[in-house]
Amino acid sequence: MKNIFKSFLSTIAVLAILFSNAQAGSVKIGTEGAYPPWNAKDESGKLIGFEVELANWLCIYMKADCTIVEQDWDGMIPGLIMRKYDAIMAGMSITGERMKVINFSQGYADEVAQLAVMKGSSLEGMDTPSGINLSLGGSNVKSALKTLTGALAGKTVCVQTATIHQNFLESGDVGSVTVRTYKTQDEVNLDLAAGRCDAALAAAVAFTDYAEKSGKPVVLTGPTFSGGAFGNGVGVGIRKDDTDLLKAFNSAIDQARTSGKISELAIKWFGFDASM
Amino acid sequence: MGLLAFGDTGWGDELFFATLMTIAVAAAAIFIGFFLAAIFASFKLSKIRILNLIGSFYTTVFRGVPELLVIYLFFFGGSGAIMYVAKIFGYDGYIEINAFITGAISIGLISGAYSTEVFRGAIQSINKGQFEASEVLGFKKKIYYYKIIIPQMLRLALPNISNVWQITLKDTSLISVTGLVEIMRMSYIAAGSTRDPLFFYSFAAVLYLFLTFLSMKLFNKLELHYNKGY
User: Fold this and answer.
1) pLDDT tens-digit profile of A34-54?
2) What end-to-end distance do the CA atoms of chain A give, in Å?
3) Check: CATH 2.40.440.10 for B21-181?
4) Which residues of A touch B8 (CB under 8 A)?
5) Calpha distance B184→B170 (Å, rounded)
6) Which residue, of A31, A43, A149, B30, has the fewest CB within 10 Å?
7) How far apart, in whole angstroms, are the C-alpha atoms of residue B112 and residue B44?
8) DSSP labels, A247-259
9) Is the distance from CB of B109 to CB of B70 less than 8 angstroms?
10) Do B179 and A70 make contact, defined as CB atoms within 8 angstroms?
11) B189–A33 C-beta distance less than 8 A
């Protein structure tokens, strides 16, 4: 009986190995394929999106042989833990809750915040980088904040009340601006369009959506903000014991950021610099 | 309607293949279910107590645990169990069980639990005289079951089998969580990617109703066939 059991098990094991498609030295990246512009599918059924292209670039920097696999959102983290794939790039924000189960690389992009003004405003076309990450700091960030401080001096900036955007404006990072708060983002948009605000600060996508729907000439200006008070953004999810892969992803993201690749892809897919 | 075009410009071909996948999973599941039901229904009707218990255990567990949970257990637990066994034999890597096989087995187990009760009920509804007469006429048990009892059982069971089939067909939508691209998952992807959820989910509903309609026609025909003598 024991022998029968053993041979049964080995048969299953052999079959399972035959059915498996595990490859040494390759990285499998899981994504959802239904969350544009982060990741989606086109009409021919091909995976497209910001993260799909970024994943391919990161793999070039890591010199890894990558495949991107689809997974439903609900099973995303269990699938990673079960080793269905080795990394998650699915618009997944880095949160403390998720950090209990898996590791995250540094953030590569976010639903970034940006200033908006009406077309023709003196604040349009500020001389700053397209995006700054407050967590990284450095001379880049400092000079951008200095430019902003100068430009915004004496101006009224509108924000939704009790948001990270209000906190940032009142933190003193951009000098002493007059902050006017509103209960909803819709009211901010309306008063910006009505000329009662010199500028407004919110998630960049809130302004692009409003401009598209209302047809009002609202334009984004200055750098996109991420990191610091704006949160940790979206990163690559990796198993806790996979520290080598985590290091590889972190340095690949560094390379992609310095070479401007993340910004380039973000502007292509989001219409603004969502990189961080 | 451009959204439903076939080829690289629309979602028509993707949804068509997704529909075939739904049918394939449902068909595989119902046959796995019938196979299990044949075994467990005979367990439940057996005079041996331990077999009764095994039969009741099966139908209670798989009718009692939510379908989605069974799928999760198989999808995540199944790979884990096989990898554990493989590790004993010295293979340390990721082993994936095909999502189709996982789906068909887990839905089949659930559908089998319902079918078991259907088969049991149908056999018990057959007049006791039929069994006694068969024995008196000297048929062996194997022969009279195949020639006399099961044909009568099928007639009685058909309306309920039709029910089980409809449930099984709809349960396949739950397999979308494993990433298997059937109607539900494809509509989800198309809805997300085009940001037009109402259109694609409505179309998915139409596809399911269409499948239901086809199955109804088929079962009506079968019922007519098995009721010929009545």
Assistant:
1) 888 899 998 888 899 999 999
2) 61
3) no
4) 43-44
5) 10
6) A149
7) 13
8) HHHHHHHHHHHHT
9) yes
10) yes
11) yes
CA–CA distances in Å: residue A31 to residues A50, B115, B192: 11, 37, 13
Nearest chain A CA: its distance from B62 CA (Å): 22
Backbone angles phi, psi at B223, to 5 degrees: -60, -40
* Interface contact A36-B189, CB threshold 8 A: no
Residue B90: closest C-alpha in chain A: A13
A199-203 and A156-160 strand pairing = parallel
Within A13-168, strands assigned E span: 26-31, 40-41, 47-48, 65-70, 87-88, 103-104, 113-118, 131-133, 156-160
What is the number of alpha carbons within 13 Å of residue B13 lying toward its C-beta?
10
Rounded to the nearest 10 degrees, how much is the dihedral formed by the CA atoms of A148, A142, A270, A215? 0
- Which amino acid is located at A66 in the chain? C
Interface contact B80-A12, CB threshold 8 A: no
pTM: 0.76
Domain ranges (residues) in chain B:
21-181
The helix or strand, by DSSP H or E, that contains position B156, with its residue range, turns out to be helix B150-171
- What percentage of chain A carries pLDDT values higher than 70? 91
The distance of B74 to chain A (nearest Cα, Å) reads: 12
